[in-house]
Every structure is written in structure tokens, then in C-alpha cells.
Amino acid sequence: MNIIKLDIIMNREKVFFAILITILAINYFVFKDNLASVLSAFWGVSYAFLAGKGKPSCYLFGLSGSGLYGWLSFANAFWGNLVLYLFYYIPMQILGFFKWNNNLKNGKKEIIKTCLSHKEKLTLSILITITTIIFGIALYYMHDKNPLFDSITTIGSIAGMYLTVKRCIEQWLIWIIVDSLSALMWLEIALNGEKVYSTVIMWCLYTFLAVYFYIHWKKEIKENSL
Q1: CA–CA separation, 58 vs 138, rounded Å?
Q2: Phi and psi torsions of 114, nearest 5°
Q3: Residue 225 CB-density burial (10 A; 0-12 exposed, 13-18 middle, 19+ buried)
Q4: Paired residues of 111 in beta bridges
């Protein structure tokens, strides 16, 4: 029974990536999408998928995706996202790889999931709110294209990446907000004529995966606490 279940899961994963590759290939060859956008989407979705499954190898994909996404942010004047990816995301990807490898389940290449205390949740919420407001004002005076969205996604990503390295389930709640807003931000860019369709698809898939893995992690943590 377990072997059959494993086969079904593996087949679903193969189908998921086959569909992803097909969509990205169509974007590149038919709609002439930006190559950096296509590659960033593939590496980024691969990272999110493996992170959700608790695999330390996700960070190897994350490094490649972060570099390409940083370039896209630079090309589209999203200065907050540019700073985030170059000076925070890439170093945290490296740190996360070693942290996760030191917190694996016995006999498995999968991390032990954790959650924040009520006090930690409240403290983090207040800190995110205050820094988002301050950073948003700074981006406004830097002539950022969308200071509100850029500020929320940048500060949210900092908090989300921190919780990811700590293996906390709350990361997925933050990623749901960050990913959905990022999808809207890049959709606006695409509608204005920039060929970044794959980036829009990437953020939409991020949002879906964040919801899926939040439910999956919550179920696993609940089962382990019994």
C-alpha cells in the first residue's frame, strides 16, 4: 500500500514539472518571453516545491533563482526586491542549506517542522508592520514604481525567509500574502508590455504551493504532537 501511494505521489510530481516545463517552453518560443524570466520561474518553482517537501536541496535551486530574479528586479526598477535578493536572500539560501541539514528526521533527508509560540507570532507581526511602513516611505522617495507592494513583498520576504530557515510553518502564511501580491505586481508589468509572463506564472504557482504546503505541514505537525 505504501509503495503504491509513493508511486502515485511521484507520478503527480512528474506531471507537475512536465506541465511547468511545457508552459515555460511555450512562453519562450511562442510568446518570446524574457529568457531570464523563464529560467527564474523554473528554478524558483523548483525551490518552492522542494522547500515545501522539507528537502535541503531546495536551496541549490534557490540560489540560481535568486540571482536571476535579482536581475529582473533591477531591469524593472524594483529596488526593494533587488536589495532583498542580492544582500539577504542569497546569503540566507546558503545559511538555510546548512541549518536544514543539521535538523533532519532520523533516517530521512527531510527536515523536522516547527511552529512559533503565541508571543513570537505577536512580536513578529508588530515588527513586520512597523518596518513595512518605514520602508514603504523610503521607497516612495526613491521613486519606486510601486512602493506599497514592493515594501510589503520585500519585508514579508525577509520575515518569510527567516522563518523558512527556522523551519516554521508560519512561513507559509507570509508567503501566501507575499506571493499573491508579487503576482499582481508582475502582472501589471506584463500588461504594460514587458515580456515577463513566466514570472507572473511563477508567483501564481508560488501562491498555490504556499497554500498547499501550509495545509500539509499543519497536518504533519498536528500528527506529531499527538
Answers
A1: 33
A2: -130, 175
A3: exposed
A4: 104
Q: How far apart are CA 162 and CA 170, in angstroms?
A: 10
| pLDDT tens-digit map of 50-66 | 999 999 999 999 988 88
Q: Report residue 133 as a C-alpha cell.
A: 511602513
- Which stretches does DSSP call E strand in 45-197? none
- Distance in angstroms between the alpha carbons of the first and the last residue of the chain: 24
Which residue has 534557490 as its cell numbers? 62
The whole-model pTM stands at 0.87
- For 40, residues 6+ apart whose C-beta sits below 8 A from its C-beta are 65, 68, 69, 72, 198, 199, 202
Which residue carries 536571476 as its cell?
A: 68
Q: Are 87 and 157 in contact (CB under 8 A)?
A: no
Q: Which three cell numbers stand for residue 21?
A: 516545463
Distance between CA atoms of residues 195 and 191, nearest Å: 9
SS3 37: helix
